[in-house]
Amino acid sequence: MSTFLGTPTAPPPAGAGHLRGTESFPDAARHALQDTQLRRNLGAATATIRAKRAGVVAEVDDWEQLRLAGSALKADVLARLPELLEELEQQVSAHGGVVHWARDAAEANRIVVDLVRATGSDEVVKVKSMATQEIALNEALEEAGISPWETDLAELIVQLGDDRPSHILVPAIHRNRAEVREIFLRAMPDVDPDITDDPHQLAMAARAHLRRRFLSARVAVSGANFAVADTGTLSVVESEGNGRMCLTLPQTLITVLGIEKLVPTWQDLEVFLQLLPRSSTGERMNPYTSMWTGVHPGDGPQEFHLVLLDNGRTRVLADEVGRSALHCIRCSACLNVCPVYERTGGHAYGSVYPGPIGAVLSPQLTGTTGHDDPNASLPYASSLCGACFDACPVRINIPELLVHLRAEQVDAERGGLPSGQDVAMRAAGWAMGAPGRFAAAEKALGLGRVLGGRSHTISSLPWPGSLWTGARDLPAPPEQTFRQWWAQR
Length: 489
Prior knowledge:
alpha/beta, 6-stranded parallel β-sheet
């Protein structure tokens, strides 16, 4: 075994995998905001999920204690990650599995392609997996002449629509039923041409389509929600049963696992199997929870490979503040409460990890190459309202991480010509440096009431004020300053 943990790796090269978009968040968000259908779809879907989650979370009297336990377990895992990964490898190997280590997306894709080729198969069925989306495994398989078939319904819709996922849990959340029907009619062979947009009919069409794949595929590729270090057990939780079909029917199973997805012991799963379903789908427990440990003669896949994926994670681990982003259990609760995500959708973030957690995880995994790097804009894709922290089942303080990453970027860009923000901040600092200057500045700002007009709202200012009013309105100054109000009392 050769491990590289403990030494921060170089960030993945630009263009490798699906962690970086092609335009900055403000530009992509501006385009998304013009799509009224998208905003309706997102608003309806996230409101439904939020209501379901609030109901089932309220049923648990010790919810906050569970959150604290989940946070403590994740912190313990990251503190002992090398030790736990070696323990996991030993246990998987002892039970007949084979462990592979992948430093980046290219290495992980090469390992999986070689493993599939060795079986002689030219197709694989897939369980929904963020890790394989992250490394663009489907594209690598297709380039090698191997057909990947997504079996999760939402992932299938995205694949048939030649689209990109826009949500961690519901990748096709940006599509409504009528759009799904059109995709099925266009891209699904043998579908009934009279199919309607009734959810039952759509689900039955997908079921018939996938059943043929399940019965013919000899290789399956999965991710995993958790890996238990002391037993070598992998776990996938899902709602449709497609995961269990993939994990049990094929002869060969290949699992791609981010190295942070560990729990130390079997008992620790108890905490996360309560936190995850309530936070993600608003259910008390997952309909399907599949667990497997190595291989067993005559039962399930007879060949099991585990690919442990770094792809920038040890780089994140080296940041004592930023590493808490690796606590994420991919429940997507932070997306469903975020006012920014609800209006822009996931594509605006560029990465397969959208929303608040994506805004802190993606730029750390890839690193950023300067102000023009699309991922450098992600830490600013937030109002810092704090709703994501309240919703996170493992208490990731996302607003704190956003501010931390913004500060890192500002520090990295110090020097050279001052930006508009630098000019504004220096001017504010000078004005606030003496009582007389501050009083004069207050009087000068009072003139802004003229710009506010009857609406008392300023919508347009010259540069550098346009950097603010280009994205949001500015309230007109009040008729009376605090000092004037205080002096009258």
